[in-house]
Amino acid sequence: MKRALRKKPSGEEAISHPVSGRGYAHVCPSCGEPLALYDLRDGDQAYWCDPCGKGHRAGDPPARALRPLPHAG
User: Are 55 and 35 in contact (CB under 8 A)?
Assistant: First the structure.
């Protein structure tokens, strides 16, 4: 029998993120500016918004943090 280890979020947090970050830009959910990628001391990576002073770990993006890139061609 399988059981979920985590409860599924509801509402805005229920937005499913793409399996891959390819084709998406990481943007600040507050202001929409592109985020800078930084390496953390624990070996993980995080995205940070300099104007807002907010950020998130690369593996745990909040809702509205990924914006599709325009396709060339």
Answer: yes
Quick check: pTM over 0.90?
no
* Chain segment 5-57, per-residue pLDDT in tens: 555 555 555 555 555 557 888 899 999 999 999 999 999 999 999 999 999 99
The span from the CA of 9 to the CA of 36, in Å, is: 27
57 φ/ψ angles, rounded to the nearest 5 degrees: -65, 145
Integer Cα distance of 1 and 19 in angstroms = 25
The closest of 13, 23, 3, 11 to 66, measured between CA atoms, is: 23
- CA 55, 58, 65, 50 torsion-angle sign: positive
**Residues 36/50, Cβ–Cβ less than 8 Å:** yes
